[in-house]
Amino acid sequence: MLTIVGGTMAAGWRKFTGASQYPELTHNQDYSSFCYGVKADRKFRLPWIQGKRDYDLEHDVINWIETITRKFAPNEKDVAEWLKDGTILCEVLEIVMPGSLLRRVTTRKSQFSAAENVTNFLDSAKAGGVDDFWLFELSDLLDEKDIGRVFRTLAHLKENLKKRNVTIQRL
Fold this sequence. Notes:
GO biological process, one term: actin filament organization
Protein name: Calponin-homology (CH) domain-containing protein
Organism: Panagrellus redivivus
Domain Calponin-homology (CH): 55-162
Helix content: 40-55%
Strand order of the largest sheet: 1-2-3
GO molecular function: actin filament binding
């Protein structure tokens, strides 16, 4: 049996969730084991606890993507799934750097097509002048190894757009 005891989580997680539905710190009956919340949610929460994700940056990038693509993101837990097929990423790159996509975007729903689209985004961004340092790796998104890195790449694209004083006209 698990009981909730007083404790604090990383500031980023608390800020991210506001009034969290997850317990702050749990322990077993004899206090021999402590953990943050339920095991099922650890994959989602761990990067926040470790400081690998930044709520403000992600919120800003998601709002920017929604503004330029006019496609709206799902809730916070499903944002990785929303980006995972690569079509949103390719659409963002095509808007930011028109004509920069090296290959056609695949709309089929399969892991192979998703990998093709994400690779297309990465190769096209690199060909468009984005330094390797700013690019995430395929596994960061498809295997959800480091979603924060994906958002840092998109934030870099956004900042480059600002630096070049490019305004995006969408009808």
